[in-house]
Design brief:
alpha/beta, D-Maltodextrin-Binding Protein, domain 2, globular
């Protein structure tokens, strides 16, 4: 009886020690949909012994710099082409550890309510970072608004436009400002997360990327980590985010604006 009592006392004494060593992932994310998806996954991760600490960011630069410096363990807001371009520009060493979802880019109405109503000199607002601008231009090309030179692809810029029959004015803006630009632009081509955050619905877009487009297979949003960080809890994070429960959450909550990655 005494031995059993001592065993119970010892177990209770050790509980705070074990709790203190529970795995924690500090992850940076855009508020919508990334942080919302992580919140949905937090209970599933907790059941696997992982505490998720979510830090929200409203831009595309700070979460990568915070990850590189060690202030974060991971982040979730970007696609791999953006990460590759960021690494090249900033000298960071960040890698993708898993593709989670895809957000269709959309063309949204500003002063002009239909693509076939665009007039000469109309203003088209697009993201100003290299990879997302290329994606916007590819969507414009798919809708026969412009033509890009052969081979421009995922590195296209305004300089690669070889045909622009309406002489559309391409206005480059920070991605986070695109929704606000709508009253001053004829149309804007907006990243999925910022469209959602701004109250826009993909079903109301004038055009969206096709499911079989180059973008759909390239621009999946990823979990990023530091190169060489192979902690098992990061692998578990990706497994949970790619699991059936989170896929169901995405499909039900976002109604086509967020699509689980294959």
């Amino acid at each position: 009886m005494a031995k059993r009592f001592l065993a119970v006392v010892l177990a209770m004494a050790l509980m705070p020690i074990f709790a203190a060593h529970a795995a924690t992932i500090k992850i940076g994310a855009s508020p919508t949909p990334h942080a919302e998806i992580l919140q949905a996954a937090s209970a599933l991760l907790k059941a696997k012994g992982i505490e998720l600490k979510i830090v929200e960011y409203s831009d595309y630069v700070q979460p990568n710099m915070a990850l590189e410096s060690g202030d974060l363990d991971a982040n979730y807001f970007q696609h791999k082409p953006y990460l590759d371009d960021f690494n090249k520009e900033k000298g960071t060493k960040l890698v993708s550890v898993g593709a989670i979802h895809y957000e269709p880019f959309g063309i949204y109405a500003g002063r002009t309510k239909a693509l076939n109503s665009l007039k000469k000199g109309a203003i088209v607002a697009v993201p100003n970072d290299t990879t997302n601008e290329a994606r916007a231009l590819l969507l414009m090309q798919a809708k026969n608004l412009i033509k890009l030179k052969d081979g421009a692809g995922l590195t296209a810029t305004r300089l690669d436009i070889v045909e622009n029959p309406l002489k559309l004015k391409i206005e480059e803006l920070e991605a986070a400002q695109l929704v606000r630009s709508l009253p001053d632009a004829d149309v804007a081509i907006i990243n999925g997360n910022y469209a959602i955050l701004g109250g826009l619905k993909v079903k109301d877009a004038l055009a969206v990327e096709a499911a079989d487009s180059m973008a759909a297979s390239t621009y999946a949003n990823i979990i990023a980590a530091r190169e060489g960080d192979n902690r098992p809890e990061l692998k578990t994070l990706v497994e949970v985010l790619k699991g059936e429960e989170i896929k169901k959450f995405m499909n039900e909550k976002y109604a086509g604006a967020v699509v689980p990655a294959l």
